[in-house]
Amino acid sequence: MLIEFDKVTKRFPLTTANDSVSFNIALNSIHGVVGENGAGKSTIMKILYGMYSHDSGEIRFRGERVQFSSPLDAIRRGIGMVHQHFMLIPRLTVWENILLGQEGSFWISATERKTPQLKPIFESSGLGFRLTDTVESLSVGQRQQVEILKLLYRESQVLILDEPTAVLTPQETKDLFQRLRQLKAQGKTIVIITHKIAEVLELTDTVTVMRQGRVVAHAPTHTLDAEHLTELIIGQACPPPHPRAQEPPGQPILEVQGISTRSHRAPLNKLKLTVRAGEILGIAGVSGNGQEDLVESIIGLCPLSEGKVQFRGKTMTGSTYERLTGGIALIPPDRLDEAVVPTFSVEFNAILGLHRGARFQKCGILQRTAITKHTETLISDFSVSPPSPVATLGTLSGGNQQKLVVGRALASNPALIIAAYPTRGVDIGATRRIHDELVKRRNSGAAILLISSELDEIMALSDNIAVLFDGYCAALFPRGQATELALGRAMVGAA
Amino acid sequence: MVELLESSLRLGTPLILAAMGGILCERSGVATICLEGAMLWGAFVAAIVAHYLHSPWSSIVPCLVGGALVLGIHAFATQKAKADHIISGLVVNLLVAGSTPLLCKFLFGSPTNSPNLARADRFHELAIPFLSALPGVGFIFEEMPLTYLALILPFVLHRLLFRSRFGLRITAAGEDPDTLLSCGVKPDRVRWVALCLGGALAALGGAFLSVSHASQFTRDMTSGRGYIALTALIFGNWRPLPTLLSCLLFGFADALQIRLQSAEMIPIQFIQALPYLFTLVVLVGFVGKARPPSAIGRVS
């Protein structure tokens, strides 16, 4: 065994993150560590990587007892980690990012392809970028490859990846998995931390399931199936999804009529869409094909160069604030950037954007009692944990933050819900909760525009699926007629 | 015209030296409004050392050390004590502005200035043979030693910043100190080095004022040149070569101002305000496009 965890326990002030965790990772294998957010899977890996120290138990690496005091120690022993948030400097080039901290000589050259550690990677090609490109010009998937290159340059034998597919497109995920299999063939050991069941089954050799800080199962992957694994992860059989009402959709609520934008990101190009009452329209597409502009056009943040957007039959002209309080609800694409203020309390986050309403302020003075009451309702309706209105939002897990965001958006009974990547970086339990809520709203007559990079999510929820490619609607599939293959082809413009 | 350009070069010299120092500091992620203080301290140290030791060259090393110490205070406050960068910079500026007249009074009996330096105690033009005889551009090669340094330094710094381990780490410290730390380099150490070096360069800019351009230290003699250097480096987008050009441009504005003072139609106060007005226009009009180091001024 390459790595052995023996009764490792780690306590934080309020919780026990790892409770007597024991399992082994075999040399030259792909090992999955799975569990919900907060199950302790990242913690145990961060202990191995030297970011945390454990309270009791021991870790053996190549049979020898180790306790790394910093990531640097771990890197020196050949253990590297790719974090969920990349440790890259966007303005520097790929090569400079790889070198940083391990430059060798004082003067450095612009590129150096002859580095032996990187040779196999460049020979197998398919990187799609050059060492002289700046990291900010790369896609998220390519940035992840840079992170992996960094580890290879540092001669890591063990690669730990924390939720590596959370930000990737299906194609990028496929490429990543292929790359990881290649690395395994070259003798590396790979540990992948994830909560995505399909990926565990597809990629890993062995899997360790964690729940509430404990190991609940450790088995070769081929002995498990999806249902069994889900049960192990959430600790109970899956509740059936919310039943879908079988009524025909009603009046058009949102009509996007041939809009174009001129933004510096991916602009829209004569896009046409209609979302009816009681309908979920799924927008599939590789991110960066106009999703942001679509969302911002509807809420009035992005100026249109042509076309118009109609809401309930009237062309929208109001300010963003008027739109968002006049029957449109938004679950923003990027939680930390656009939806919450992590340093604010839960209750202030719960009224962001609603704070001007008469309910929450009188003559500019915030009404604390009303705010707290509103927050408590949200917390109990959406089982946000910990159930405290005064907790700092940043201390909540991603899933719980997102439940609050969804709850806030839906609190006003909107006629149109724009759900952009509603379950990005959210655990299974919270994902189910959010999906159920969206279906419930659809059944009671709301029009929902669902934007997601997860095909599974789009296919499970949508009544109709539009594929966004290069700023226009490349294909439209009614429910049941979309196959993953057909969607995938339309997504790359080959429909 | 040649006279005007020559005077732009001279007036640009202290700006270039200070701005190059400022680039080092700011690229490492530390907001450095105390360039002004470092310059003034450099001017003071250079003047008194040259006065006592009777040689301009002897003042160089004490001046460099003095500048490093002044920004060492800034480094201590911002990196060790985690103070706000602007507050710390302000304190350093006030400290220097207040202590130099005090020391002057203590040493020479007058708080306003140090004694005039004898001719041999200050720098003089150093004509480079042959090159100074070139028609048209010859005036560039008939300058003060520190001016030559100011013209070479940006190229050296360019190479250092973009092609060396040191430069890479400085940039990384200014962009994302957490990432640098994750690569096993302590960002605060990088910043200490950058600030001390930067302070030394800025002090040299001050020395030019007191032992090269003028022949004594006078109270507040930098009169905002540290801030103008800061503007110039922002205008130059924190890069040495564009900053060299913008410093020369500011030098030109200053030279023009002096030239126009002889014209009697315009009140002299307006003309004297010209370089500052120019600074304001540049800051408001052009600097929007500049992209500062991402982590500048952030207290960790």
Written account of the structure:
- The complex is a heterodimer of chains A (495) and B (300).
- In chain A, 31% of the residues lie in helices and 25% in strands.
- In chain A, the strands form five sheets. In chain A, strands 6-7-8-3-9-10 form a six-stranded mixed sheet, sandwiched between helices.
- Chain A is of the alpha/beta class.
- Chain B has 300 residues and is mainly α.
- Chain B has a two-stranded antiparallel ribbon.
- The termini of chain B are far apart.
Chain-wise SSE layout:
The complex is a heterodimer of chains A (about 500) and B (about 300).
Chain A (H helix, E strand, L loop, with lengths): L2 E9 L4 E10 L4 E5 L6 H8 L7 E6 L2 E3 L4 H6 L2 E4 L11 H6 L19 H5 L16 H14 L4 E5 L7 H16 L3 E6 L2 H7 L2 E6 L2 E7 L5 H9 L17 E10 L9 E6 L3 E5 L6 H9 L4 E8 L2 E2 L4 H6 L2 E4 L3 H5 L6 H6 L9 E2 L2 E2 L1 H14 L16 H13 L5 E5 L7 H16 L3 E5 L3 H7 L2 E6 L2 E7 L5 H8 L4
Helix pairs in contact in A: 14-15
Chain B lengths: L1 H26 L7 H19 L6 H21 L4 H24 L17 E2 L14 E2 L1 H19 L1 H11 L1 H6 L4 H27 L11 H11 L4 H21 L7 H5 L1 H12 L15
Antiparallel strand pairs in B: 1-2
